[in-house]
Structures
1.
Amino acid sequence: MDDKLTLTINGISVRGKKGQTVLEVCRENSIKVPTLCFHPKMPPYGGCRLCIVEIQNMRGLPPSCTTPATDGMNISTHTDRLFKIRRTVLELLLAYGDHNCLMCEKNSECELQNLVYEHGIDTVRYKTNFVPKPLDDSSSMIVRDPNKCVLCGRCVRGCLSVQVNGVIDIAARGSDSFITTFNGGLLNDSNCAFCGECVASCPTGALTQKQSRFKGRPWELKKVQTTCTYCGVGCQLELNVKDNEVVKVTTDPELGGPNQGSLCVKGRFGNDFINHPDRLKVPLVKKNGHLQESTWDEALKIVADKMGSIKKTSGPDSLAFFSSARTTNEENYLVSKFARAVIGTNNVDHCARL
Amino acid sequence: MTNSIEELENSDVILLTGSNTREMHPVISSFIKRGVVSGKTKLIVADPRRIDLVDFAEIWLRQKPGSDVAWLNGLMHVIIKEGLYAKKYVEERTEDFEALKKAVSTYTPERVEEISGIPAADIIAAARLYAAAPAAAIAYAMGITQHINGTDAVKSVANLSMLCGNIGIESGGVNPLRGQNNVQGACDMGALPNVLTAYQSVTLPEVREKFAKYWGVSSLPEKPGLTIVETIDAAAKGQIKGLFIVGENPMISDPDLHHVEEGLRKLDFLVVQDIFLTETAKLADVVLPAACFAEKEGTFSNTERRVQRVRKAVDAPGEAKADWEIMGEIASRMGYKNMKYASAEAIFDEMAKVTPSYAGMTYARLDDGGLQWPCPTADHPGTKFLHKEKFVRGKGKFHAIEWIPPAEPTDSEYPLILITGRVLYQYHTGTMTRRSEGLNGCAPECFVEINPVDAQKLGIANGEMVKVSSRRGNLTAKAVVGEMTDVGAIFIPFHYFEAAANNLTIAALDPQAKIPEYKVCAVKVEKTK
Amino acid sequence: MEPAIRIQPGKDRQVLVCRGTGCESQKAKVIFDNLEKELEKAGLSGSVETKYTGCHGFCQQGPTIMVMPAGTFYCNVTPDDVAEIVQTDLKGGQPVERLLFLDPKTKDRVLTFRDMRYFNPQRRIVLRNCGFINPEDIEDYIAVGGYDGAKKALSMTQQQVIDNMKASGLRGRGGAGFPTGMKWEFANRSVADQKYIICNADEGDPGAFMDRAVLEGDPHSVLEGLIIGGYAIGATKSYIYVRAEYPMAYERAIIAIDQAKKKGYLGKNIFGSSHDFEIKVKLGAGAFVCGEETALIASIEGKRGMPMPRPPFPAVKGVFGKPTNINNVETLANIPVVMTKGGEWFASVGTEKSKGTKVFALAGKITYSGLVEVPMGTPLREIIEEVGGGILNKRKFKAAQTGGPSGGCIPAAHFDVPMDYENLTQLGAIMGSGGLIVTDETTCMVDMAKFFLTFTQKESCGKCVPCRLGTKKMLEILTDVTKGKATLEDLDQLVALAEDVKNGSLCGLGQTAPNPVLSTVRYFRDEYEAHILKKECPARVCVRLIKFQVNPDKCKKCGQCASACPVEAITWKKKEAALIDSEKCIKCRSCILACRYNSID
Amino acid sequence: MKEKLQEIFSHHHGTRDALIPVLQDIQGEFGYLSPDAMDAAARFCRMSPVEVYGVATFYAQFKFDPVGRNIIMVCQGTACHVMGGARILEEVASQLQVEPGQTTTDGRFTLETVACIGACALAPAMFVNKDTHGRMKPEKVAEILNGTGN
């Protein structure tokens, strides 16, 4: 069966596939439709009303993120009418929140900020009696600022639909709605597993990583893709580096790998050990029953000499090697090679069983 | 894993046992949970603890610790008796079915209930649910393996999977979930006493010859070496004199720590190469500072056999160096010239030449999402799931397995069963996680999970300090009274050096895999005065 | 207009006691008990049957009772009146004159409901049985031809049933007015292993109560409508979603379902056919937005009642992801009649595009509030002046508000408008579910708009930004207007924002929430401007803008204000203008409401 | 409480679509939804507790604090508004010295508003427990409140 569709978008004929939404077709054809509550990992929500489009013979202004593309559709994505409503939506969000980009960790990575700029908003028409709410600063990993929340529900869908952790949801309704934990408590008192999916999915500064606050602006960070050092899943993540220091961990579905853009608490928040002052920096050698700082030259000489002499006097099988399930393949290969080729023993193992 | 992580989201049934997946492999648990909430997957959890995933389970089998072979045989008993197994698959693709049939014939649901404590009706229900699924996956972890009959249990799991035709199909299979980032890789690379890379046996002359040629030596040792626990024993007996430890911390991770310490102290020479001064490193004669994963290049192989790149993001602190650089320098100093490498990539390329399942891999190819072995040639796309058309060995072999009881039964002096394991916020011996502010803050101290019935009997209230003792040692920790563990069992995480659970554990080993029985030993609990 | 009701064998008369909410709250039960006692005493138990019914519709004069078959209609009955009714009427054969309805125009007592001006212009299809049958007895319903429509439908093909419905021209009475036959056809075309039909009884418009009256007074007609619709679309499962505020409707629906099950009208192989059909009742939990179809579905599924954008439409993907058809109570109550009398017959009632009748909940500043059912196209004036008896206290008609929070108003200039979908839409009001609130010169239209916006703002689910925050901002502006703090620029902003909320919102709630504002600005801009420019509330409702001073030029010196004042803040002597002591005044507006001459500023 | 919850659960099928009826029954029994009860309902309906909380707070019907022995509901429907319902609410609130949604300190009354009870012909209307009081006037409030049980 042919699953190709032909649609007209903004007067231009484009191709799509059956099963795609209007938004997906737009994106594949490089037509930029603004979105806020949309997230590619999550079921569409249709709440922010920014991705609305006009479709011939269709009532109202359907959101492109939920509307299935059908053959022959005639779609307009950037009419004056749409622009006017999008602007109103953005201004309302600005009017009922505390969006101060200068003091926001998310500055330059904020989707709301970008949308406001793209819509040429330099002043907010609406004066409101917005009353700020207190921050939830209880956790050592995540800061929640309800005043920057746009209720797009992405954190909730990340928690409920992607991670299926069930920690947060939207409570109450209407303009009283807010993101909550069970019974409205602090995040740290909740059943949160701190996977950080919510933080990663938040388009604004409402959810940010605490440890990395004030450690570097987005444009100062160099991102290096690597594989997580914790469990056997092998999540792909990005170490965010500033001045030779890992200040933050992020991930992205685009990185590939088994985790599809998710992480757990250890992968996302557990890499501060890298910079820990306890890290070993120089070789230590036991002298008079105490370990003392030494040089590579001295330490390696002792190791080579001592192993050589044990091999000589007691035979290769009196030496043994514990390799590690935490070092790389290359290094495990080398430990095996070392034991077998250099020493001549099969006494090599690692903690696979422990 | 025979199959891939993402396939779990589409399994019709997942039998999950001996894995607290939500804490140990949170990312994998999300795939499972998504499958369940979407209505696609029915989950069967077999676990002595009421782990979080029980909330998502259709059926929860709460077995007594150490009874896995029995209930697995029980499931197969029902499946065979009711004719629910994959007859065509069994006939065409497996062998020794009759032996299995005979072995499980005595494991009636009633007898299994007696051994495992699982109600007979639940055994039957679980068997029917599992057998009816077009694609059923089994996922397990150390809860299955860390027993004196761990190998038997693993074989039983494989028996069950084959019986219903689930090996070699998408979203099915037998899927051990690896606990550490590169256990898979360390095994693949031959950091094992009996095999070289890709499980090429040291006992085969042609294998030794091949490696000797590539490594530029005249011969390689043919006698399988000692495992970790055997090494410690041998050290204690004075047979091992020198030990080189790379990034391991047996002073917390190994069973019966008093015995471990005794062995290590008896050594003539101990080298520890690590990123922190671990409990083990403190006993060393020489400690070599290593670079951590963020400071070097290389590859890890994950639990689904996916080989992925590790990349350098920052410089190592001080004079610390990558392990591979250190090993190379020592080898040079010992007169061996074939371990000088310009880069990690050069090592990988050499390894790939002697490793059939990695032969088609290069760093360049790995850059795009990694590759799953076997990947034998440069144009091979990698392997999503194993045994697709036929088993690697030809026919799938059924093993007739009999259940044996745990090594150390409870008695009047030590009346409770100790289960050890992990918690979400800590990792293994805590070397890294206990130095992470956020993680350690969430789980800063050891605890003892105890059922309210036992707690009341012992006069213990939630949050009180208790002393737990076994024949080998003791520890003191806070009691957490709750329904997580069943009556008669307690649980203690092993991450904490100040209350090291392995003070208590027994070094009883599985005779085949040499795995210690971490999941069952006899202990007593008392209120501290 | 009255059905051929069933009377117990051997009895020749029947006393129908209204147990609608209005009468029930005024001791209808005591009246009923007294009636039985008195009949016993008078030895009439053998010949007179007593019966509880649903709402008679004439709530203003409740409690009401009717003696059938004569049709004698007694108003404002108290428990003490019962003995006299038994003795004089039932035993003596003479009506109790003083309890008969007094026609305000002719000043005559009217003997039967058939002759009452309130009932006369009405044409009852939906309410055909309400007030005449015992809603808790299926036999009563069967006696008036109940379930004949269902039997007939089951003997036809699905397409024939749908075609009949299309021929009737019946449009959804929930508000949007979508043709029911077409809706069924869509659901019928969806292929699935399970389909659902849902009765939307979440009557959310605060001012409408016809769905409640039907479910309470004639629940089987709704069940029958569901059976017919279920058969037509191929649904075997059904829900009635009733709002929690209607406990009696809930209970009666449950009783009706039990009785229908016992009869074999529900369950497996209904009416001996091969069709299965079951109905469950779900109680809402207090959310107006759940009247919206997709929100209602979410609510049935146990979720937050937040709407989903359409498509997919419920007819394709509804409750539990299955094709679902939703009809409201009034629509469903029409359906048995459409079946028995035929689509063509039904189409003969009403106007060209709006067929059948419409039930209006007549309330507000009207003499006789209650439920009235008139043919589509009946002029507003006739409903208010003939049926409703005109404006309360002979004040001046200002506007009629229809469609509740989603609707708008019809000003006096359009008093003769025929009430049908098209005309109302054109005026910027909507048919909605049939709430018809009458206002007079003491109603402030800004306050009215603010009232509705307060409601929608509170009931907004919060999912989409225009509705969540746009209505909030609109309410802030309206509040400023009523306080005299707004400017003309604010008014412009209000209108501009209203347009964006209307066009930009996700669901019907947000899309229609600005209607009360747009409509009142359209017809009563002068009132807005008076608030803004003169800091005056012409209707003297907005307390912050009222001086609470007697205007001596207008004062007729009658003293009504002084006697209405609850705190004795008004001094008045005969032939003198009254004086309000501002120290004592609590600004309760009792004086303003009491003054017939609008002489308090 | 456990037994009563079990009794309530026994009348329902433990799936998500039973949640609202379950919560209604719980509130019917205890007068409000305690965190423990919501947690139990979550387990029964196989949802996470926070989802139950999200659902419960969405609907106006549910209460999260114990209610008074008598519930006063003042109708805020359109007809009631036009006929002076706001004034009735004001009067009740001032006599009881509570805001809508609150309970008097002695636990005797809880004051609530309702969007519309469909008794528009009786506007303005208020309800004391199950009794309807139509065509209300502010001066009738005191008498009605006094006539209500402790």
Note: Chain D has two domains: 2-58, 70-146.
2.
Amino acid sequence: MMMIPLNITKTIHDWLYSVMPENAASITEMLLIAIAYLALFAVAGLYLVLLERKVAAWFQLRLGPNRVGPFGLFQTMADALKLLSKELTSTDKTDKFLYNLAPFFVITTSLIALSVFPFSKQFQAFDINIGVFFLIAVSSIGVIGILIGGWSSNNKYAMIGAMRSGVQTISYELSVGLSIITMVLLTGTLQLSEIIEIQRTGGWLIWQGHIPAIIAFMIFMIAGTAETNRAPFDLVEAESELGAGFHTEYSGMKFAYFFLAEFINMFIIASIAVVLFFGGWLSPFGITEGITWFPEVLWFLIKVLIIIFLMMWFRWTFPRLRIDQLLTLEWKYLLPINLVNLVVMAIIIWLNLTF
Amino acid sequence: MRPISYRDCERNITLEPGTQNMKPETINNNFKTEEYFVNMGPQHPAAHGVLRLILTIDGEIIKNVEPDLGYIHRSIEKMCERDSYQQIVHLTDRMDYLSSHINNEAVCLTVEKALEIEVSERVKVIRTIISELTRIASHCLWWGVMGMDVGALTTYFYGFRDREMINDIFEETCGARLTMNYNIPGGLMFDIHPNFVKRTKDFITHFKTKLPEYDRLLTGNVIFQKRTKGVGVLTKEDAISFGTSGPVARGSGFANDVRKRHHYSAYDRVDFKEALFTEGDSFARYQVRIMEMWEAMKIIEQLIDTIPEGDIKTPTNAVIKLPKGEYYQRVETARGELGVYINSTGTKNPYRLKFRSPGFSNLSVLDHITKGAKIGDLVATMASFDFVIPDIDR
Amino acid sequence: MSYFSDIYNGIKTLLTGMSVTGKYFIHARKGSLTQQYPDNRETLKMFDRFRGEVVMPHDENNEHRCTGCQKCEIACPNGTIEIIWDRGIDEETGKKKKKIDKHIYHLGMCTMCGLCIEACPTDAIVWAQNYENSVYDRTKLSKVLNQPGSKVKAGIED
Amino acid sequence: MERILFYIFAVLIVIFAVASVSSRKILRAVIYLLIVLTAVSGLYFLIDYNFLAAIQLTVYGGGVIVLIIFSVLLVHHVELELEITPLKTKIIAAALVVAGLSITLWAILTYPFNTANNYKSIEVDVIGEKLLSYGEGGFILPFEVISVLLFAIMVGAIVIAKGKKLGIKTGEKLE
């Protein structure tokens, strides 16, 4: 297992190994990294929630949260505190074990997926040689949390939501996977850090792969939005149909986990898009190429935020699809286009038409 | 199929269609599916108010819809029997609160018809303008809610933005935004505010730029069209036999606009088209309402510059006593035909007062046209019906 | 071929919708509809005719215009107004005369229909533009409209 | 370090495997099974068989378990519990398990394992070439056979799902 610590944490790494036996130091280091990631992305998730609320407000001619802290910056913190202090209720005759397991399941899988992203050259916890495939694998498990959460709530709305979620995620995983494979065909590697290295010389992949890459990006955005259960694919929690869908019966922090997981999933999808299509932490046209002190992670975050903004724009503009239309879109439109696109990409690489 | 009782819902017993007893279904199929009950409402985000729908669902498919009313029943008709004719008017604000002015007008017109008093031209024109403004306001809200029900939350705020302008006009003239109670038998409570004409014109110019935006945002949207086209189809025959009215009936090609066919107030002198679509699906009902907003603006434009001078109220006795007899008057609210039936015995209170509310008849169609549809379709259909639950329950 | 034109049209309509919301996003600061309510108390002014609550104006001599004719009480559909009156002897003429003791107004029952104000022959009660009517105790909603020690303005009765 | 992790995974696998077969609530059993499969993939990660681990997660965690959960959701209510197995069946099952376990253990304990010295993780392109090669060590034949099998399964699924409509065509009586 390869661990690439941050430059700043190099000293901590050395210090840990100097004072402790090797095993203990390694375990401590893992724990430290895990806690750092947890804290970082809990905060990131909270601020994504705030961003969503602000963006929604601006789309809807409102002001958005602006009471807690300057510009409402601490609003979601306050919400999280409120949710922490709330009672954890459940319905009668739930399957208590599964009911309590589900939110942790959802949040854990999304946090695991975060570990493989190269946020900058050195900021990557787990540089695995099958990075992209690992992402698909982990994200395919996340749905189980929703399924068992919906089933064990002993609520019919939650049940319908869970069933819809299962159908939706299984179908759209195919499109996400295929559009990722299209790009993998271009790069010839599954390792995320290598994918970015390729883009350093040849330009961003969406430029290298031109037409099929753009189609793959569009399909990835659609399928990714569906994968995260966001509007216009939010049938899982369609509030006008099912109340709140699979998390109807959850309260307090367990609900907050579901909520946070949705936003972290959105972050993951945006991150995949950024790594696969927009050069990850690379600056556009190599502006900050030679500057050593410049935090490359900033470029990554800016790109991710733009993609997330796009998804929010979708959410606050479009009506929701119906369940059969959702499946029609996947199986009659996205999948065939995707397969053709894959072949086109192969031909383009074969004829060396990439830029 | 025997009707579903509450106990059935509690015990979650499956009722087989077409069978009287509880014998297990013998479907010649590998997969036996089980129907189950879901309560949609009375506190459901899709039901605009406290409507309870008992759904029998097979997976996503709806087998039966049974509306259960009474959660907001305030016995307005009975209260009317206790009140004097002036006092009845303000109760009607609370029925269909989105077209409160038109409800008031209906009662006033009935009383005026019974007393055989003729209100001045000025009153007629003002009533017509405010009625049409009310219609636009109601449809604005409906548009926002329609979008919200099919999942586009932003429409709600755009609809409200334009509705607020109309509410401001009402507030300036009548003193209230929603329950205006501006009509009294014999005319209006007081004259319009001096700013009324200017504000109304401002609104019309504003709204003419915003209504095409509605089309761009929602009407043209491919997802919205997929969600509404061919969903909840109501044929013309059914529309007539179920007694539907308003945009629901006109979406099915049943031309029954009261304003056109039974003139009242100043509708006889204005030129407007009756919005009529023949598809009968949710999208047709949607289009009817969008077109009605255009037509309402046309009506206001024709009248706003030429409000005639005249008395604002025709004097009546302080205690109105209707002559013995039965009186009926219908008007077109934003939801359809509202009929007011007064049975008077010559006293100062009505012996019996009955409101034929549009929502109640329209609701009766719901089960008929959503059978076999999906839950999402039910929500879209309900949104296109534009229910106001106090209007159904009264 | 309709397969591809469907896709094209679909994407086109979606982008049109996004352009509408996008336009409002850019103009979000200017076009915001929200009023920051408790902050704008000073500038928030109701319209003249706004029906906030029923009040009885008194002039500087602590005189009101209510004769106690009870027309408002009769006109009210909800029993919102209660008038407790008495017959007192007028100092000038020596005749017995109706005089209000308390003009009680139950705001909690009022539907703001305005019939009482329409019915009042002497314009003794009018609408106030007060819009902050919520209280912690329901009994506070019952108000006595005439101030203590007030009397009818001379020359109103006739 | 790796030893500790291995034992953690091993204990997890054993505990949840037992829990999975002894649980009376069916969805819980499925979740225990999921934990077992995930722990197995953890073992693969431990020995740097990353691709295999990810396959394990995708196919078993994301595919098989989701499908099982799905079918459980369709037929089971949250309160339903499985019946208690009769004693006779239990004894037979236990005997079979003991027999199988002893054979496996015997095989493992007597086989002369070589200690692996190669810590290099296998690249994906190597796996890809192996999968599609028909030379020695190639997997093209099983690959194709599985494809055909999956195709047959898909056709079967469609036929079953369309059962009602086929029935109408053949004139069977349907409710």
Note: Residues 50-75 of chain D form the longest helix (26 residues).
3.
Amino acid sequence: MIAFIWSVIILTLIATIMISLYGISRRPNLVKKLIALTIFGDTANLLVVLLGYRLIYPVAPPILPSLSKEALQTFVKTAVDPLPQALVITAVVIGMAVNVLIAFAIVQIHRLYGTVDTRELSKKLIQVEGGEQ
Amino acid sequence: MKKLIPITIIILIIFGLAYVMSGKIEPQENVRALGKFYLENSYFGDYSAKSPEVVTAILWDYRGVDTLFETSVFFLAIIGSLTLFRLNKKQEKEAKERIEKVEELTLVIKTVTKVIVAMILAVSASIALHGHLTPGGGFQGGSALAVAPLLIIAAYSKYALEKQGLDKTRALILRSIGLIGIALIALLPLTKGGFIMQNQPIFPWLGGSLIFYNFFEYLAVGAGFTAVFLLLAIPEKVFKKILGVGE
Amino acid sequence: MNELLFYIGAIMIIIGGICDLFGALGLLKFPNFYIRLHAATVGTIGGAVVPLFGVGFLALGSDFLGGMKYAIAGASFVTGIIVLLAASAGAHALAYAAHKSKLVKWEPKCDHLEGDEK
Amino acid sequence: MRGVISTAILAFITYIIFTGSAKPYDLFTGLIVAVGVGILVGKFLVREDSKALNPLRWIWAVIYFLKYMLIIEVKTHLDVMKRVITGKYNAGIVRVPINVKTDYAKTLVANSITNTPGTVVVDLDDKYLYVNWIDVTTEDPEACRREISEEFEKFAEKIFE
């Protein structure tokens, strides 16, 4: 039963990644593309954190409860894996940086061309290039 | 109704595959060897980082150089955004002047904003300064801190914030102070024969120099976001006039 | 005492789930923005503030968390109070903006604000 | 230096509750942060320190909070849930006179009205609140006041005036 729930969670996350990939590639609106990209990043991070989880009871966060050698024994037996969490913090920060940059680019595109639809944008870009020649 | 069909198919596929898979995979019950090494060594072992919070220990000590470059990526992104919206001195002055009467929100929202800003400042400082004891740390605290100027921009206006002395230049100066602080503390262990970004037991009961990393990162992230928000808050009308794009 | 706190917290979280369900139903069922706003209030107060307080009580009643239980409880209480203050201001701002922009078409029984603005 | 002390106390209490421990380190950093927050935003928050530090007002605030969460919210939540099931509504925007004068008292009344499902404050000026009410039973301002905001105003006067 636990293995079943575990695989349902993993498969759900993979399905979410597929849906967000569809959103990135097939939606014409740039803002919707950005939203899909955010969902993609967050789901990937959740998947990585899930790999560090331990399916035991009780499970503890990776913080020493008290500063004694006896506490360390039970701590190592119950705590979750800290490495994926540390990596995910790095990934979250970099994902946020990328999002800020993309959001600024989209705002600037909207100010310059008045649209965020890729189809209309390509038409306008062709017009601009034609005007310069 | 039309949307329900693909959703049903996806759910059926997930449960079917999970039923097939469940006999074959083992749920994660043990930590990997590297994770166990970090858990055992973070405070007591031979390779101690002197921090009871294992994630922070990995972040600022074991894999400190990772974090250093992550911070630099983040600030390169902010610099990139500032470059996209670059204004020269005259244009910046123009953007700072009120063009017309700015419409502000109602009394209720303004009063609530005041109280919430005071609470958010306290909460974000708590998140940042306890990064070596509880989940959280510099980046999380800084993100929470950046909510305060964002709320003020939304409820009053960008001009109110600039009138009180927090404009883009000051925010960038604060950010630079934070970055320089991180760099100095990262180089400090080299003078004592350690490796770069090693945790120093300056104040042993505070988890060493972790608290300084967290504090400077808090300052840098909060101020960097504030600069970004101040740029985003320039009204579109003003910006179009500056860029020379037609109405 | 711990048991009592634990059960109070669990019941509050369940209440929060029920309120969220009703809020979502209301958002789907009601016809226009102003009436949907009332359903959204059910989702923010009953569906966010009450379960946050519930998490606080539940953490206070769970001994296996050790020293962390006060941190978890305190964080959820402070977050609950901030949400309690901010949610009402947010709903008010939405209603104010919608009425100002006159984008929503509806047939109210009476609209004194529009009469007074003219 | 008006408002620094009361804002610092608010920030200090928030800090300690959020941290969830009272070791010397927490108290020390909390004190520094609280004083910093007080100097930064204190002058915008509080007009009279003596009013903000009056314990009687705080007791009334606690009593009001308990009564609000336990009785008033429960009643209105049940009412709106019933409406979600039946789908009946009779909405409109009514004028409600308001008697309290200070900013905080007005905010408390308006927030209390908005936080109860079924009523949302749309706009306010010096004399009136404009309330979007899900079930308009009367259009007379005084009767509306009795239905919607009388109880909140009573407490707001005790707490903030």
Note: The mean pLDDT of chain B is 84.
